[in-house]
Amino acid sequence: MTETSHSETIESLRKYETVQGQSARVSGPTSMDNTNRAIVFFFLADEESALEFDDETAFDLIFFYDNIDKGSFDGHKDEWVLVYKQLNK
């Protein structure tokens, strides 16, 4: 499988905003189920019990489901996919 050159960043996630700084709803990629959507929201919003890799995990999940929506993995239906550190710091 070829590597994807696109990483999810704060700027690339702005497409989900309706008004600058505000998202109409926590939606994310359409293929993302509600459980993973809630996990992403929790990882990005929780400041009290956050672990150092929570943001990274959330952005990796968004990247994964966004690429499912784009069909990036269509040629690899019977293969494993590893998404790791897609957030540019």
Textual characterization of the structure:
The protein has a domain at 12-22 and 30-76. The protein has 89 residues and is mostly helical. 33% of the residues lie in helices and 6% in strands. It has two helices and two strands. Strands 1-2 form a two-stranded antiparallel ribbon.
Tell me briefly what this model is.
The protein is mainly alpha-helical and 89 residues long. Helix content is 33%, strand content 6%. Helix 1 packs antiparallel against helix 2.
The overall pLDDT, averaged over residues, is 75
User: What's the alpha carbon Rg, rounded to whole Å?
Assistant: 13 Å
Q: What structural class should be given to the helix and strand makeup?
A: mainly alpha
* Most strands sheet: 2 strands, antiparallel
Give the number of helices.
Answer: 2
N-to-C order of helices and strands: EEHH
- Helical content stands at 25-40%
Strand order of the largest sheet: 1-2
- What is the strand content? 5-15%
Tell me the layout of helices and strands:
Elements: E1 17-19, E2 22-23, H1 34-45, H2 54-70
Antiparallel strand pairs: 1-2
Helix pairs in contact: 1-2
What structural keywords apply?
89 residues, mainly alpha, two-stranded antiparallel sheet, 2 strands, 6% strand, globular
